């Protein structure tokens, strides 16, 4: 990875913001990801994220922390929080913004134990493909304290396959419809394409049951998105 995401965040943090990140998928056109939005404070977060942060308790792991906005909110509440991200640029920005414990790390390499594990902003995306979900969930489960919880969000993107007549053109012979090829570019440079997974709640529920996790629907957003609590 070239870490163009981290480069964009660093540019903004250091006052060199001139343009936004461009994203697209194999089923959607190019769209701008406004970099200022990634630096939002609590009052500008979606209700789903606010709900998750209010439910957070105890020693917390913020997975895919980005600029550290969630961690900063929790720190102000005097909570013990560790922020991790695979983007070195994002972690540098999180530290510059004041996140005390921030580390470049893949969740699969984490070994500590936590009371709350936050995986937000389409958290299921880190699983990449449906056949890897059980591997990730099993490992994340191993990081939970006795009464620990995982707060994770995603969206059911079936609506993106809907035609004008209300039918769906999902290819039943293809991979799960939530498995997308994700493309990112910044300042004319293209990132290495990556896999990104959107999971409908029922698929997440089934995956959780398979690894011995309880899965509860906590909140449904206005656009097919939801927050789930795993324990």
Structure in words:
The protein is α/β, with parallel strands linked by helices and 231 residues long. It contains 6 helices and 12 strands. Strands 5-4-3-6-7-12-11 form a 7-stranded mixed sheet, with helices on both faces. Strands 1, 2, 8, 9 and 10 form a 5-stranded antiparallel sheet that branches. The two termini are 33 Å apart.
Rg value:
17 Å
Element-level helix/strand string: HEEHEHEHEEHEEEEHEE
Main sheet record: 7 strands, mixed
Low confidence ranges: none
The helical percent reads 10-25%
Fraction in beta strands:
25-35%
Let me know the number of strands: 12
Strand order of the largest sheet: 5-4-3-6-7-12-11
Q: How would the global form be characterised?
A: globular
Total number of helices: 6
Rounded mean pLDDT score? 95
- What's the N-to-C terminus distance? 33 Å
Compact summary:
The chain is an alpha/beta fold and 231 residues long. The protein contains six helices and twelve strands.
Descriptive keywords:
single chain, 231 residues, alpha/beta, seven-stranded mixed β-sheet, five-stranded antiparallel β-sheet, 6 helices, globular
Break the fold down into its secondary structure elements and pairings.
Layout lengths: L3 H10 L7 E5 L2 E6 L13 H9 L4 E4 L5 H8 L4 E5 L2 H9 L5 E3 L9 E6 L13 H10 L1 E12 L23 E8 L2 E2 L3 E4 L3 H10 L4 E6 L4 E6 L1
Parallel strand pairs: 3-4, 3-6, 4-5, 6-7
Antiparallel strand pairs: 1-2, 1-8, 7-12, 8-9, 8-10, 11-12
């Amino acid at each position: 990875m070239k870490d163009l995401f981290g480069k964009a965040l660093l540019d903004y943090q250091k006052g060199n913001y001139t343009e936004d990140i461009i994203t697209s998928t194999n089923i959607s056109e190019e769209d701008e990801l406004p970099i200022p939005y990634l630096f939002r404070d609590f009052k500008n977060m979606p209700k789903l994220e606010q709900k998750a942060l209010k439910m957070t308790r105890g020693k917390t792991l913020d997975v895919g922390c980005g600029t550290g906005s969630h961690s900063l909110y929790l720190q102000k509440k005097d909570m013990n929080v560790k922020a991790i991200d695979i983007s070195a640029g994002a972690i540098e920005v999180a530290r510059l913004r004041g996140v005390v414990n921030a580390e470049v790390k893949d969740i699969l390499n984490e070994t500590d134990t936590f009371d709350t594990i936050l995986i937000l902003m389409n958290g299921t995306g880190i699983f990449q493909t449906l056949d890897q979900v059980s591997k990730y969930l099993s490992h994340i489960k191993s990081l939970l304290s006795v009464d620990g919880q995982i707060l994770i969000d995603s969206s059911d993107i079936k609506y993106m396959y809907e035609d004008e007549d209300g039918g769906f053109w999902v290819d039943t012979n293809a991979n799960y419809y939530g498995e997308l090829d994700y493309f990112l570019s910044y300042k004319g440079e293209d990132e290495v394409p990556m896999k990104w997974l959107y999971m409908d709640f029922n698929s997440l529920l089934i995956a959780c049951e398979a690894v011995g996790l309880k899965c509860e629907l906590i909140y449904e957003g206005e656009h097919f998105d939801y927050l789930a609590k795993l324990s």
